[in-house]
Amino acid sequence: MVNPLTTDVPNSTSTEKYLAVQNSEEFARLRKTLRGFIFPMTVAFFLWYALYVLLSAYARDFMGAKIVGNINVALVLGLLQFVTTFLIAWYYARFAASKVDPLADKIGAELKEDAK
Amino acid sequence: MEPHGFLLAADASTSTSRTLTITLFLVFVAITLAITIWASRQTKTATDFYAGGRSFSGFQNGMAIGGDYMSAASFLGIAGIIALYGYDGFLYSIGFLVAWLVALLLVAEFLRNSGRYTMADVLAFRMRQRPVRTAASVSTIVVSVFYLIAQMVGAGALVALLLGIAPGTTFLGMDADTAKIATIILVGALMITYVTVGGMKGTTYVQIVKAFLLMGGALIMTLMVLAAYKFNLSTLLGDAAEQSGKGAAFLEPGLRYGVETQGDALKTFYSKMDLLSLGIALVLGTAGLPHILTRFYTVPTARTARKSVLWAIGIIGTFYLFTLALGFGAAALVGSKDITAQDKAGNTAAPQLAQELGNRYLGGETGGAIMLAVIAAVAFATILAVVAGLTLASSSSLAHDFYASVIKRGQASERDEVRVARIAALVIGAIAIALSIFAQSLNVAFLVALAFAVAASANLPAILYSLFWKRFNTSGALWSIYGGLITAVGLVFFSPVVSGSPTAMFPDSDWHFFPLSNPGLISIPVGFLCGWIGTVISKEDDAAKYAELEVRSLTGHGAH
Question: Is residue B398 situated within a structural domain?
Answer without folding.
Answer: yes
